[in-house]
Give the backbone structure.
Amino acid sequence: MAAQDAASARTAYDWPAILKDLAGTAIVSMLLMVPIVSYKSVITQYSLVLEARWGTVFIILGIILAARLLMHLFVWNRPPAALPAAKSSGPAKASLTDRIGPSVFPVLVAFAILLPIISGGDRRTIDLSIYILTYIMLAWGLNIVVGLAGLLDLGYVAFYAVGAYAYALLSTIYFPYWFGDGMLPWAFYITLPLAGLLAALWGVILGFPVLRLRGDYLAIVTLAFGEIIRLVLINWFSFTNGPQGITVPKATFFGLPFSAGPGGFADFFGIEHNRIYYYIFLYYVILILALVTYFVTNRLRRLPIGRAWEALREDEIACRSLGINTTNTKLTAFAIGAMFGGFAGCFFATRQGFVSPESFVFIESAIILAIVVLGGLGSQIGIVFAAIAIMGSFELFRELTIFQDYLPEGTDPVHFRMLAVGLAMVLMMRFRPRGFVTRRQPTVFLKERKAVSGDLVKEGHG
Amino acid sequence: MEYFLQQLINGITLGSIYGLIAIGYTMVYGIIGMINFAHGDVFMVGSVAAFLVILGIGLTGGSGLLLILLALILVAAVAMIVASAYNWTIERLAYKPLRGSFRLAPLISAIGMSIVLQEFVRVNQEGRPKPVQPIVTGGYELMTRVTETGEFIVRLTNMQILIIVSTLILMAVFTILIQKTSLGRAQRACEQDMKMASLLGIDVDRTISITFIMGAALAAFAGLMFFLYYGVTDFFVGFLAGIKAFTAAVLGGIGSLPGAMLGGLIIGLIETMWSAYFTVEYKDVAAFTVLVIVLIFMPQGLLGKPEVEKV
Amino acid sequence: MATASRTPVLSVEHLTMRFGGLTAVSDLSFDAFPREITAIIGPNGAGKTTVFNCITGFYKPTEGRICLRHSDAKEYLLERMDDFRIAQNARVARTFQNIRLFSGMTVLENLMVAQHNKLMAASGYTIAGIFGSGHFRRTEKEAIALATAWLEKVKLIDRADDPAGDLPYGDQRRLEIARAMCTDPRLLCLDEPAAGLNPRESEELNRLLKSIRAENDVSILLIEHDMSVVMGISDPIVVLDYGQKISDGDPTHVKTDPAVIRAYLGVEDEDEDALAAKAVSEAVGGKS
């Protein structure tokens, strides 16, 4: 409707139409807010009662109507000729992130290596960086499955869980049982590869039955698998200790525990004991793991297997006509993606010092997927930007408590965190469905490496 | 035997609820080929809205039967209208602009919307469960068997009768609507070929909107029934119920309305029987496993049409 | 004809393909001989592409046998093999009616993907490749050289580093042929390679196909509508109509076969009145 109105003229407003539209908006908005927003159930001493919040409702309604009116007055009444001009930024021009993308990586790595020094050993900065790096690594792992092979996996967090529980169970139960306690300081280093292998194995086990599925079906089945694993972790009490979770030992610096007193890390190097060393150590561990993920993936892209993944994303039938075993190709993507998830899970377990099924809910998969998509499917650099943007804004919500005074009583900005993530996913798809870095770097070239425009790159069938 | 009969009744009740939700998935998938991931949460919105209205009008089980019925019709109407408004808005804001965009976009947008709905309700109504005292009470004792430990009575409660009967009525109304009206014809035309349908003068946007509204209304009704049956709801009930209903839709053959109902019944029965005869902890695992097995071995479902790969 | 004494490279025997109640191909038998271009022609919906899909394994035929022989006398029963094994082992390559290039990958990458199996083995199934083995690097160089040679042949060498999806239509057709040839096939199945080409491009395609036949150990199976292509280059022609073979033989024979003329130009005189009556009744029926 708005578009037709726009055709008429720029200056002459079609007031009856605008008013009609505003009235419609008001009705729908009221339906959305009554009773979900307008009445809140509160527990009093005796019973549940409703608390009316019409003030909030009318404020929101006012904001919506005002925004819509402004859109009518200044945006939707532009002559139609202006519209294509606004849209043309898409295919031809490379975006800012596209242009700076490839060159910025060495700078990022240098910054990351120096970060503990730059931050002056600030515990919060390092914690946040560990947190972001974990998600970057997870997203790089998922990127193999979703971005390169074009298989939509909504259950990626399952492999994260496999890695975490592999560490938890092996280090607390099986290693002491098999090898005695002497092994314990080295548990992290021995478990790390095992966690990756176990996750890869699970990737194959879960990948195998779903290979024939395409598109949304694949997404739903992987989601179901993710949930099955979580539910089993919750309910198989004798094996996983159920919802209570497992406390796991901390990692050591190649056998040296980060503890005060003799034989510890600080003692060995003759420095004063400080808890921050442990966090700096963890930071470098995840940085190394993430960089390994990056370089291995990058290497794989240039090997036949990686090219087959991308070809699979582009056109599976053509792949089969060229003699590519698509089953094996998909399985390797699943397995290698899962393996990196397993590594990350193992690290996560040791960082938290505790694992429980609660950490591996669907929403985690959704967030990792959101990072991959926002980064630009297949783009590793884009993922770094996206992870910083998403995980950083998560943290930002904690800071928003300064607005506490302006918000209705009893609302905590942290509660809006997930709401914002959901909204961001919707808005992202609407305004930048191709993500930050839309262009694809070819894996081989004859004369010059020309990036491929994102409009040509397909997103796969699942 | 008596035990089985009781589980059968329970299973059919639960299955009716799943079936009602599944119809929304199946219709939307049929018409625009996407999984409305937020559909389970529209169901949740319906049940939370029902909770608020019931609390608001002070409906309790103590009132007379006629009064309760009239009040429940009112509650259902409000829940259905509110949920419809939500689904309509979701379609307008999150899906319609993405029509013709790249294929992952609507699905990711839908996941985002699902999160938005959950969190929106949580922010407004807080996370704790919302209880209700039983409103539709009483029932019939069908069979009694005396055992060593006591007697086992097979019960058919009035609530179960209400759920099954109202589901049947809704299904009948719905089937007539789809098969006999021009709206149903428009929907089927859009399923076949959206571009052609619009060339033939069918308002495709309107048809899709109505499909979302209808699906939401049925889901909201299911939400009300779910709330009354279990006596509790919260912001997260849509996730599990949604996946199970989706399983039902796939099992029945996505795109097929009778299939959705049939699939709902089967999932309801599987879940109940699994809880009754195996372990109640793994009932969700059972439902998910059914989903996986069906998709792998029978992706076209029980009543769906097989898909031929186009080369 | 003299072909009777030679061993066919491909024998299709009693091939039948049904989809539900629809019989797309019915009891079709024909042979294709080494280093010949065998054309399959017929009106729209005659079942030509279905035959291709059966030969390349995308469909499993309902009945019948498809046998492929290599020059070393090895035989492959294609109806029993997976599609990718047909391409990999029996060495059957194909192109598609609606082009299926990897449009987001460059022209060169498309040709590298076509050499996947060779490169995969050389990379030690990725393990040696990760560590950059010399053998793999040499094989990759050879693969690039082969791709370059084909790009020169199809005159796309200047566009090697451009995305395949950016090429004009005619170039995409040629690239798809080059990609198929990079798999080193014994049988090349081309599904309407001249569709959408202008006369000059068609002419170029003719030359390309002839030179492929002359320079490679490959037989070509060709589905085509463009009669200038078909008549210009095919050795034998098989004519399909409603899933059945109605004629075969060399171009001059097929051109004059009454059955072919009937299928292409419609029915003969005495049937015309019946047809007209049918058309009228349909028109009336449509209005009521």
About this structure: Chain B touches chain C at residues 308-309, 311 (CB under 8 Å). The two ends of chain B are 52 Å apart (CA to CA). Chain B is about 70% helix and 5% strand.
